[in-house]
Amino acid sequence: MAPPCGSGRRWMRAVKLILFLFFLIPMSSVGFRNTNTIFDKKKKLEIQRKLKRLNKPALKTIKSPDGDIIDCVDIKKQPAFDHHLLKNHTIQMRPGSYPKGFLFKGSNVSSNSKPKITQPWHLNGRCPQGTIPIRRTTEEDLLRASSVANYGRQKYPNDDNNAIHEYATLIEEGDTYYGMNAEMNVWNPQVQEQNEFSLAQFWLAAADNNGVYETKKLTELWSPP
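^ Neprosin PEP catalytic domain-containing protein, sequence as received from the core. Prediction below:
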């Protein structure tokens, strides 16, 4: 016995709807995969461009025991000179003059003495004269950053009055100072949150007649990648 006319039409509409959904779901999945593929390609291209800009051609490459790759880059082609204000900058290896009463003494290290091992990669070689050692930036380094564009940029603290800051300072005032140098280490810093950081700083501040300070800082900073 044939079903009533109205029931047959409803049954046909239900079949068409099921078939439509059956074909729609795979098409949506394909579209989603295509979107992800396009995004991944753009991300990959952005990373490759960033790495090409950061990693300068090396005259010598040294593999460090800790896994890092050290590139010996021509001192005149170091990344700092990419800045427009440092174009055609003349590198001065030693001061052209010294403060009155200050006598510069050359190194007394014998040419036959072995160089001091200060970093792990020194175990596998040294950079030739006229080059500087630069750790090679990897794709993993960029992926750990909040964004590829922000990689290597220092995060400035916001004006959150609820933030807790802990300091340990040593201040020396008076006398006459002609410059500064410092040896600093940030050793095993206890950092728990993404917005926390640990640093060591050496400040040299001088005030003019109006009490306005001009400050120079040497900084050693570590924050979560």
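Strands lie at 58-63, 69-74, 131-135, 198-207, 213-222.
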